[in-house]
Design a protein that fits this description.
Elements lengths: L9 E6 L7 H14 L3 E5 L4 H4 L3 E3 L27 H13 L4 E6 L1 H12 L3 E6 L15 H21 L3 E6 L6 H9 L4 E3 L8 H13 L5 E6 L5 H12 L3 E5 L11 H19 L5 E6 L2 E6 H6 L6 H10 L18
Parallel strand pairs: 1-2, 1-4, 4-5, 5-10, 6-8, 6-9, 7-8
Antiparallel strand pairs: 2-3, 10-11
Helix pairs in contact: 1-9, 5-6, 6-11, 7-8
Bound molecules: adenosine-5'-triphosphate (ATP).
The site of adenosine-5'-triphosphate has 19 residues, from helix 4.
Length: 343
């Protein structure tokens, strides 16, 4: 961990990568904490793009009023390819120096932290805040947006289940999460799914799913809900094959980007507010290359290199619970990411 050589007077804040509900609460906290501590704060628009194009603005407390309840990010977000090049990285650091930005708060996922790491090597103090609905950042048990997203998906799946039961159908519902299965696992438990397909750890076994469906139908079950993770994918083709094999009408529903939107839950607002304040406090304390996280019941900060090196897996006990809750007779089928040849 490196330390600031002089007192920080000006900081910047940006949101990068995929947006997540609660990012606005984090931005608001950064701005108000910084102003309260006598710092000047710039909002940088569209992630690292804003540093390339000098698209930034000094923010007042008023600029972030009426934002805590809003989904998305008022600073907008982007995936900035230029930030991956040495020229782009130099340019980003130059913009920081031009505006006197000595400390930068980066709200995003692992990729965004890699960009922050590069800026730190060029003398800008950086602190990351975990902002992603995927919950796939290893150093933290909480990421901003997951709570809202899982609740949004859960409500949508309840609705699909109603119609699935009425029509005595099988429903495959695909939830987001990129290569991580946390959203799928949580929805699987929260929605009482019969099967949960995760990209982590397990082998795909379609015959077992088919057997489960035939078995549960025999027992008089009126629906069969399969939660499929984005990292497994192929829900539509899976539905066609399952229908052909079981004779049970099978539909695929891909929830998509609706899981990223909406007003953040109380948990996302409160945790994001705490993390935003912590990030500013760390910069004021002269810290750099830190990531704010929540682990073992406490808000903590981690070294950015260590945070990026950690590997996160699905908790086997949670997975076992999901299996046990699916009715006992249904051994939950895990899945590896499938390729087109498998299907
Ligand atoms: P999410 O998982 O929610 O999408 P993320 O932060 O992991 O969030 P990425 O698209 O991986 O999303 O990264 C966001 C941005 O961070 C990239 O568009 C790029 O500007 C920057 N970035 C990613 N990786 C690097 C890297 N290795 N070096 C420099 N910058 C990077």
């Amino acid at each position: 961990m490196s330390s600031a050589t002089k007192e920080i007077k000006t900081i910047g804040v940006l949101t990068s990568g995929g947006d997540a509900p609660g990012m606005n609460a984090a931005i608001r906290a950064v701005v108000r904490r910084a102003l309260g501590k006598g710092l000047k704060v710039y909002g940088i628009y569209r992630g690292y793009d804003g540093l390339m194009e000098e698209d930034l603005k000094e923010l007042s407390a008023q600029d972030v009023s009426d934002t805590i309840q809003k989904g998305g990010t008022v600073l907008y977000t982007a995936r900035c390819a230029e930030m991956r090049t040495p020229e782009g990285q130099k340019r980003a650091a130059e913009t920081c120096r031009k505006y006197g930005i000595e400390g930068l708060v980066v709200i995003g996922g692992d990729g965004s932290y890699r960009g922050a790491q590069v800026l730190a090597h060029q003398g800008i103090n950086v602190v990351g805040i975990p902002g992603t609905i995927d919950l796939d950042i290893s150093c933290t048990e909480y990421t901003i947006g997951f709570d809202t997203s899982v609740n949004t998906a859960m409500e949508a799946i309840d609705k699909v289940r109603d119609t699935s039961t009425s029509h005595e159908r099988c429903s495959i519902i695909e939830v987001m999460g990129r290569n991580a299965g946390y959203l799928a696992l949580w929805c699987g438990i929260a929605n009482g799914a019969e099967d949960i397909l995760l990209p982590e750890n397990y082998d795909y076994d379609e015959q077992r799913i088919i057997d489960n469906i035939i078995d549960s139908r025999r027992r008089g079950k009126k629906h069969h809900i399969i939660i499929n993770a984005e990292g497994v994918g192929h829900s539509a083709s899976m539905a066609r094959r399952i229908e052909a094999a079981t004779g049970m009408e099978t539909r695929a529903t891909i929830l998509g980007h609706m899981q990223r939107g909406g007003s953040p839950t109380a948990k996302d607002r409160v945790y994001a507010s705490i993390m935003g304040c912590m990030a500013v406090d760390l910069l004021i304390a002269g810290k750099s290359e830190r990531v704010v996280g929540y682990k073992n019941g406490k808000f903590q900060d981690f070294d950015i290199d260590e945070a990026l090196a950690m590997v996160k897996g699905i908790d086997p006990y949670q997975y076992e619970i999901a299996t046990a809750m699916s009715g006992g007779y249904s051994k939950t089928s895990g899945a590896k990411a499938l390729n087109d040849e498998t299907l």
